[in-house]
Design goal:
Layout: H1 2-44, H2 46-58
Length: about 70
């Protein structure tokens, strides 16, 4: 009888571990779903991305490498 109890305990431990792994997998799948949803949302609105890019291109601020790298010119 003692051997059967040990086997049952081991089985319960393995089931607990499996449940934890499944929980983690579900969390990761939820995160992946959120990423996919965001990606689809961005792909559905390419005009907004293009508008933002055009605004950046038209911006009066130009990034220029300083002549002397030890000094920062503003």
């Amino acid at each position: 009888m003692d051997r059967t109890a040990k086997d049952v305990d081991r089985t319960v431990e393995m089931m607990d571990r499996t449940a934890k792994v499944v929980d983690r997998t579900v969390e990761m799948m939820d995160r992946a779903t959120k990423v996919v949803d965001r990606t689809i949302k961005v792909m559905d609105s390419p005009d907004k991305a293009t508008d933002r890019t055009n605004k950046l291109k038209e911006s009066p601020i130009k990034l220029v490498a300083p002549l002397n790298p030890t000094k920062i010119y503003i």
